[in-house]
From TrEMBL:
It comes from Endosaccharibacter trunci. PROSITE patterns: CATALASE_1, CATALASE_3. Residues 10-394 form the Catalase core domain. The keyword Lipid biosynthesis does not apply. Decomposes hydrogen peroxide into water and oxygen; serves to protect cells from the toxic effects of hydrogen peroxide. This is catalase. Its cofactor is heme. It is an enzyme of class 1 (oxidoreductase). SUPFAM superfamilies: Heme-dependent catalase-like (SSF56634). It comes from the Bacteria. Pfam families: Catalase, Catalase-rel. InterPro entries: Catalase (IPR018028), Catalase_3 (IPR040333), Catalase_clade1/3 (IPR024711), Catalase_core (IPR011614), Catalase_haem_BS (IPR002226), Catalase_immune_responsive (IPR010582), Catalase_sf (IPR020835).
Length: 496
């Protein structure tokens, strides 16, 4: 070790640091001298090491990999990444829990985020999905309210089951997602053992200018593995980074996780015919009507070198699309198109997309100017506005998606009026076998502990409307837990 030639430690301005062990002081006992700017720089930098954590999905893990096309879908989309069987595209994936802060334990019952940034040769395409095909809300107006119920209570600074069930019981559109959250899939053993979903309806458009509605599915090739609540508690007692560790170590030992990437395709005109609104984020499209079509395989095969630089600063946005892929009328998707880039400008900074992890692998040729930390400005150009006579970049009409017919009067439409919130959760519930049902009832009853009776009763109505057996099962679990708690507390009560 001693004969290793070590580089010289420098200040951030590149000057050699004379002493990195001792501060400059007037005499051995101090005080210190203000001119010891190396000490000031060191302390000042430390004060600036943190950036705001993501307002949701703060705890996460990420890795690089590739997407390889296995099936030609160019009749649906001109997106270049799907251009030819065998074509590979580099990508970054980030997985996360939703509610916990950056230091939260991984093995918590929660929805998991499933974000993928495809560095395509037409720019970055970000698919910012979850491990569930639906969501708790169908109007973005409710997102901040819903998230508040998942975070800490302003007075107690603790998570509040009362707030969660109060909100859910007043928002029946949440029932489908609540059912998934309380099922086995609500607590995956690690990120390798879960599916990913784009969740929203997006659009594809092809060279002929035809549009198709599309949903994205990532099927885990490692299979599904879940913890029970009791198992997860034991895991957390030993290891708060269980999912980070599992992903990192699997990639280090060469067990590269893979997902089969599939799409469901709906012809544009079908959207007027389906009995459900195909742009409603609380609904799935039945596979019998719109079967899965395999597109390719995603593999994760490289860990980041520096977690903060590459994962904490990674910035995914549903607004990042490429020609051949478009949005849909889904109201929640529309709201998200604003929220993410806004969050990145606040959380990471104006030029967040210039950071190596976010930077497209193609040339960026925009007229955006200046701002904090601009370091990659075009050099010596006269074309700094548009239109110009100096050879500056011009728009590409081929990137314009086909026109979409829309109509309707501007109004605040009640998204709850006349909506069927029960049929799809009922179908899901009836797919559970007896053991799955019992865990499901226990998970719900466990999560309801301490919640006022009136709120539990309001939620029971939704369970009953989905399936009376669902309501009865939860009531049984609640009664059993009450009896168990009574038995446990009796010796104490006797001693009092
Ligand atoms: C992260 C907003 C719905 C998946 C975030 C962030 C914001 C946000 C502000 C933090 C972004 C950052 O700082 O980088 C919203 C709003 C929603 C919404 C306003 C609804 C109106 C959804 C839905 C999904 C989703 C429906 C999944 C289908 C994610 C994921 C992340 C995230 C996976 C983490 C991204 C990453 O890995 O960096 N969301 N969200 N969100 N959201 Fe949403």
């Amino acid at each position: 070790m001693s004969d290793i030639v070590r580089p010289t430690l420098t200040t951030t301005a590149g000057a050699p640091v004379p002493d990195n062990q001792n501060s400059l002081s007037a005499g051995p006992r101090g005080p210190l001298l203000l001119q010891n700017y190396q000490l000031l720089e060191k302390l000042a930098h430390q004060n600036r090491e943190r950036i705001p954590e993501r307002v949701v999905h703060a705890k996460g893990s990420g890795a690089y990999g590739t997407f390889t096309v296995t099936n030609d879908i160019s009749r649906y989309t001109k997106a270049s990444l799907f251009g030819a069987v065998g074509k590979t595209t580099d990508l970054l994936a980030r997985f996360s829990t939703v509610a916990g802060e950056r230091g939260a334990a991984d093995a918590e019952r929660d929805v998991r985020g499933f974000s993928v940034k495809f560095y395509t040769d037409d720019g970055n395409w970000d698919l910012v999905g979850n491990n569930t095909p639906v969501f708790f809300i169908r109007d973005p107006m409710k997102f901040p309210d819903f998230i508040r119920t998942q975070k800490r209570h302003p007075r107690t600074n603790m998570r509040s089951p009362t707030a969660m069930w109060d909100y859910w019981s007043l928002s029946p559109e949440s029932l489908h997602q609540v059912a998934i959250l309380m099922s086995d899939r609500g607590l995956p053993q690690g990120y390798r053992f879960m599916n990913g979903y784009g969740s929203h309806t997006f659009s594809f458009w092809n060279d002929a200018g035809e549009r198709f509605w599309v949903k994205f599915h990532f099927k885990s090739m490692q299979g599904h593995r879940h913890w029970t609540n009791a198992e997860a508690n034991a895991v957390i007692a030993e290891d708060r980074e269980s999912a980070q560790r599992d992903l990192y170590e699997a990639i280090e030992r060469g067990a590269f996780p893979r997902w089969r990437v599939c799409v469901q395709i709906m012809p544009e005109e079908d959207a007027l015919k389906t009995p459900y609104n195909p742009f409603d984020l609380t609904k799935v499209w039945p596979h019998a009507d719109y079967p899965l079509i395999e597109v390719g395989v995603m593999e994760l095969n490289r860990n980041p070198e520096h977690y903060f630089a590459e994962i904490e600063q990674s910035s995914f946005s549903p607004s990042n699309i490429v020609p051949g892929i478009g949005f849909s009328p889904d109201k929640v998707l529309q709201g998200r198109l604003f929220a993410y880039a806004d969050a990145h400008r606040y959380r990471v900074g104006t030029h967040y997309e210039a950071l190596p992890v976010n930077r497209p692998r193609v040339a960026v040729q925009s007229y955006h100017a200046d701002g904090p930390m601009r370091f990659d400005a075009p050099r010596g150009t006269d074309a700094y506005y548009e239109p110009n006579s100096f050879g500056g970049p011009v728009e590409a009409p081929s990137a314009k998606e086909p026109p979409l017919r829309i109509d309707g009067d501007a109004d605040y439409y009640d998204h709850r009026a006349g909506n069927d919130d029960y049929t799809q959760p009922r179908k899901l519930f009836r797919m559970f076998d007896a053991a799955q049902r019992q865990r499901f009832f226990d998970n719900i009853a466990g999560a309801m502990q301490g919640v006022p009776e009136a709120i539990i009763e309001r939620q029971m109505t939704h369970f009953r409307l989905a399936d009376p057996a669902w309501e009865a099962g939860v009531r049984d679990s609640l009664a059993r837990m009450k009896a168990d708690a009574g038995q446990e507390s009796s010796p104490l009560q006797a001693a009092e």
